[in-house]
Write a structure and sequence with these properties.
The chain has 506 residues and is an alpha/beta fold. The chain is 40% helix and 23% strand. The strands form four sheets. The chain has a twelve-stranded mixed beta sheet, sandwiched between helices. The protein has a four-stranded mixed beta sheet with strand order 2-1-5-4. Strands 19-20-21 form a three-stranded mixed beta sheet, with no helix packed on it. Strand 17 and strand 18 form a beta hairpin. The termini are far apart.
């Protein structure tokens, strides 16, 4: 083990000990987190509204009885007050940072508060714990002899009112990193926070291809875009020729499974470790702590108190969220969080399945609604419905049924969305229909707009015309024909659309 690895490993040993402790005592750890949150927020406006001081005695069950489960709209007005400079609304400390996340039905973007506590105790602790576990499992790594390539988003830090700043999570985190950490990252802030994505990719490729990159952190789909540009400008055959000392790729945001084969082809290096992380604007929730397993350890002491709604009950009016200690392996849950960022009983929108309860380990299974998030675009059903309606109204088309699925990018082709549509009346011009659909999706959804920029990661919609009665025949073949059965509008994989396409060609 190199000297720098020894020194760093000693410094991070306390992180391993802390994680080991809450793996051994998970439910006690969560109860401790609950008390920390309630005590800290007892004198805030929300704490007084629900009498948090009393909850210190009455505990989590009474907390669940008193405080309603929230979506973004339920906290939006309070978050806007916090952003305008008001204190002691959701969390006692002044909040000046907000992470822009994918939009809701009514907004292109959500603004998630990032407090000093959530920044340091949650997001930064998560990154440190990932490295601690990696060093422990790979003691001979040369990780610290080079630099970390951080592939973040393209939203610069902007003012949010007079008292706050906003950007995507990566921009917020980079802007708050200690100086010594920034020195180990590449590219510099001047490039990392560029908004023009094609210029940013060009600049990044020029700069980072000349560095000794030993680790990468990024979304798989975006990272492939950068890899293609690097190989183009260097003339190298693969990424291992550019970075022979590459040890680690920390990925998240979208499923890695569709991309793994491409990475193994582009990085023919048996020494590289792939680690999935679960870090969202709302918090750092987990990471892959065993290389031979693709589930993730749920992080229990980052200032996040977890509850879960069984997806079988999610749409019921009397749905109840259960504490972590009551979850079962193999069941699909919507995750509900209360955090040191000031989110209280907040439905994050992700669904998870537990693969283990000792320790608590999870798979991300999707979203609480039908969605497409193959490239980080987080397209929701409402976006699709609004866009297709406008395209029909403008071109005189009438649609009977449709479904949408991703076409994954390869080393030769960009990704896209395939729209399989059965028309009652064809549009006056299919290209105009497709263009309007695309433009409206960009207007409605800021994440889709970002991924579509200059066709770098996601190209325009691919329209495939379905034969007459295709969807009815598909439902009938599964014994699901009838008024209560509907075609799923958005699917985040190609299983269903491939079945439909096979039927369409017969």
């Amino acid at each position: 083990m190199s000297l720098i690895n020894k020194i760093t490993s000693i410094g991070m040993r306390k992180n391993l000990n802390r994680v080991t402790l809450y793996i051994k005592y998970p439910d006690e750890t969560q109860f401790k987190v609950f008390n920390y949150l309630i005590k800290k927020a007892q004198n805030t406006e929300i704490g007084k509204k629900y009498n948090f001081k009393e909850l210190l005695t009455l505990g989590p069950q009474e907390f669940a009885n008193r405080v309603p489960v929230n979506v973004y709209e339920g906290l939006k007005s309070d978050i806007e007050r916090v952003a305008s400079g008001e204190n002691n609304i959701l969390w006692p400390s002044k909040t000046k940072w907000f992470a822009m996340s994918s939009g809701t039905t009514d907004d292109r973007s959500k603004y998630i508060p990032i407090t000093t506590d959530s920044l340091k105790k949650c997001h930064f602790n998560g990154g440190t714990d990932v490295l601690a576990y990696y060093l422990n499992s790979c003691p001979e790594t040369t990780l610290f002899t080079g630099k970390t390539l951080a592939i973040g988003g393209s939203r610069q830090i902007n003012k949010l009112g007079d008292c706050a700043f906003c950007g995507d999570l990566s921009a917020v985190l980079i802007s708050n990193l200690p100086h010594w950490v920034r020195k180990r990252r590449t590219p510099g802030l001047d490039i990392a926070l560029m908004e023009n994505w094609d210029q940013k990719i060009e600049k990044m490729a020029e700069v980072v291809s000349k560095e000794n990159v030993t680790s990468i952190s990024g979304v798989p789909s975006w990272t492939l875009v950068l890899f293609r540009k690097i190989l183009e400008i260097t003339g190298k055959n693969n990424i291992s020729e550019v970075w022979p000392n590459l040890n680690l790729f920390m990925h998240g945001g979208v499923s890695f499974k569709p991309y793994r084969a491409q990475y193994e082809k582009l990085i023919p290096n048996n020494n590289i470790t792939y680690l999935e992380t679960y870090n969202a604007s709302e918090g750092f929730f987990g990471f892959q702590n065993e290389q031979d397993k693709d589930d993730m350890l749920l992080m229990l002491d980052y200032g996040i108190y977890y509850e879960f709604i069984p997806m079988s009950d999610f749409n019921k009016p009397d749905r109840k969220a259960i504490p972590l200690c009551d979850v079962k392996v193999g069941e699909n849950y919507a995750m509900v969080i209360s955090t040191n960022g000031g989110l209280w009983r907040y439905i994050i929108g992700d669904t998870v399945e537990f693969t283990s309860v000792r320790p608590y380990k999870i798979h991300i299974t999707g979203r609480t609604k039908h969605f497409i998030n193959a490239f980080g675009e987080e397209l929701i059903e409402d976006n699709a419905a609004r866009a297709i309606r406008l395209a029909c109204n403008t071109t005189g088309a009438d649609i009977k049924d449709y479904t949408v699925a991703p076409v994954y990018m390869s080393t030769e082709k960009r990704g896209c969305h395939q729209w399989l549509i059965e028309f009652n009346v064809m549009p006056s011009d299919i290209d105009t229909f497709s263009s309007i659909l695309d433009q409206e999706l960009k207007r409605l959804n800021s994440d889709y707009d970002a991924k579509r920029y200059k066709d770098l990661s996601l190209t325009g919609p691919k329209i495939t015309i379905a034969r007459e009665n295709l969807f009815d025949d598909w439902l009938r073949s599964r014994g699901r024909i009838g008024g209560q059965n509907k075609i799923p509008r958005l699917e985040n994989n190609r299983d269903m659309i491939e079945q439909l396409l096979d039927m369409n060609n017969k």
